[in-house]
Amino acid sequence: MNGTTATIGRDVGRILEALGGLMIVSIVVPLVWGEWFGVLAFGVSALVPLAVGYGLHRRFAEADSPSRLHGMVVAATGWLFVGVFGSVPFLLVAWGVHLGLPTGLEGTPTLSAFRDPLNAVFESMSGFTGTGLTMTDNEEVLPRTLQWWRTFSEWIGGVGVIVLTTAILARPGSGSLTLYESEARSEKIHPSIVSTVRTIWWIFILFTFVSILALFAAGMPIWGAINHAMTGLATGGFSITDNSIATYDSALIDAVLIPIMLLGSIAFPVHYLILQGDLRNIYEDLQTRWVFIYMSLGSALLWAFLYVGPYDSPLSALRYGGFQFVSAATCTGFQTAVDATNVALGAWPAQAQLLVAFGMFVGGAAGSTVGGIKLIRGLTLIKGIRYQIGDVFYPDSAVRRLDIDDRRLTEAEANREFVEAAIIAVLWTTFLVVGTVLLLVILPAEEFSLANAFFEVASAQGNVGLSSGITGPESLPTLGKISFLGHMWIGRLEIIPVLVAARTLLSRGGMYQ
Amino acid sequence: MKLSALPFVSAVLESGADDRIYDGLLLTGPVVILLIAVLETTRTRFLSGVAKALAIAYVTAFVAYVLYRGVRGE
To answer: Pick from A201, A208, A279: which is nearest to B70 by CB?
Structure first.
């Protein structure tokens, strides 16, 4: 067995052990709700990743620390396995009810959709990647066990399974940093990576408590408040109600959720500084400042599109437009625009849908829980393009600098950062276009428009979860589900680690030389 | 026996915020949520009001402390 396989095997094993631990912890929920079959489902589900993880971890205990290549392959394969193994509770509960075992749970069409392994893996991957697209028709009728597992997977996935593993194992050294950076993170709060991830977790847990209690104070029942606070802060967007947040039809709850989603879209190092008393970071940090500017401008433009469109009242256009833009741009995916209370997103004018899709494309701050290409890359691209065009107006001997945030970059540094941002943006756009074309080919042409398909793929790849009505156990063809699994996966890891893992695999299999 | 000597409490204090108030909010958060859940099951108006007051007090304490640190820090 060579060194690469050993290193990857050991670290993937640790991730699987952490996943098993999450399932064990989750047993508390079915116990509290008296869903004893849920206890069994979590217990059995935990055995698989624990056994595989422990075996890999033990077998390769002496493996070398991961290099950058290893880190990327670990992140890509680890997230894929987490998605696959995380589907087991859905499968067990659905099949248990279907086979007539004494589960004490009610059989519903929503639950029976999870008998299909593809639907179960889809739900799990959607949860862990913080996407929020769902294979359920009516979340309300799901057992509490599965409602919790969907919520918990998004909450953990929002911060990252590798961040969790690093915090638990507390393995010092460069190996942890390499893995941390492979999970689309680079910001450090403290010099030590273990301290950094622990700080990230206490901030996240504290914000979760505050969010739960704020939602409860706003009038949401406590079980709904727990679930929606966790998925809102993690910018995941799974709901436990059939019509997402529209079910509550409360402007106050909408208003409380907006700052919760915004908290999730701000980088953890900035949260840390703000909690330490340095409030100036709200406007001095480039990304945080732009989170507010971008959300305000997008909401205002969407309000204008909606006011001259489907809504007759400026207040309704503001309430639904503002919420939906923030929900999209923070990559949360909570929905208040549904036919039951107002006008469904899929029925909004094409320009409004495309603006929301643009919000999903860009996302929030790097170092937070959001998807998309991230604001800092968008800003680097804009500044970089201006810099490149401006170059023509200076003599060749001129020494130029590019200022991004508080950093003054040399020409070589500026070019490197610009190229990195451009590569991600180009790859992101390429996968978005390919996914949209594929979806248009496999969907019935009379039912969904180009705007609908583009919106749905942007939602999957941006890990958002808003739907124009395409995603569902029956409405999305099998090929579409597989394609969306890929979009969610690459979107969460910012594409490169998945491509590196694919190349490594093909190269070892002799297919890529 | 000191409260900080309890296993769970010591873990929170060790890897937590290094700040008494934030650590206190971290430790009391689950207790408050659990208490609210229990109060809500009684379905009585008075206890629901108590539950809501607890939630508002917790959120207010957090926001007020962040602002206090912000004002003091500058």
So the answer is: A279
Helix (H, G, I), strand (E, B) or coil at A511: coil
Task: Give the mean pLDDT of chain A.
Answer: 89
Look at residue A238 and give its three-state secondary structure.
coil
Separation between Cα atoms, residue B68 and residue A510, nearest integer Å: 62
Which has more confidence, A175 or A46? A46
Which chain B residue's Cα is nearest to A198? Answer: B15
- Among chain A residues, CA nearest to B72: A277
* E strand residue ranges, A388-511: 402-404, 407-409
Residue-wise pLDDT for A379-436, tens only, equals: 999 998 998 898 889 888 888 888 887 788 888 888 888 998 999 999 999 999 999 9
**Residue whose C-alpha is closest to residue A133's, from A337, A366, A331:** A331
Q: Do A217 and B59 touch (CB under 8 A)?
A: yes
The token pair at A82 is 């987490």
Cα-atom radius of gyration of chain B, to the nearest Å? 15
Q: For an interface test with B, which of A166, A199, A212, A216 has the most B Cβ atoms less than 10 Å from its Cβ? A: A216
Q: How many CA atoms lie within 13 A of A348 on its CB side?
A: 33
Residues A230, B14: Cα–Cα separation, whole Å: 24
Q: Is B64 at the interface with chain A, CB within 8 A?
A: no
Please answer yes or no on whether A214 and B69 come within 8 Å at the CB atom.
Answer: no
pLDDT band at A175 (very low <50, low <70, confident <90, very high): low
CA–CA dist A20, A56 (Å, integer): 14
Cβ burial of A221 (10 Å; 0-12, 13-18, 19+) is middle
Q: Tell me, what's the ipTM? A: 0.91
What is the 8-class DSSP label of residue A35?
A: -
* Chain A residues within 8 A of B52 when measuring between CB atoms: 216-217
**Residue A290 · residue A264 · CB < 8 Å:** no
Q: What is the pTM of this model?
A: 0.91
Instruction: Please compute, for residue A263, the number of CA atoms within 13 A of its CA located in the half-sphere on the CB side.
Output: 25
Q: Which of B30, B35, B29, B27 is nearest to B4 (CA)?
A: B27
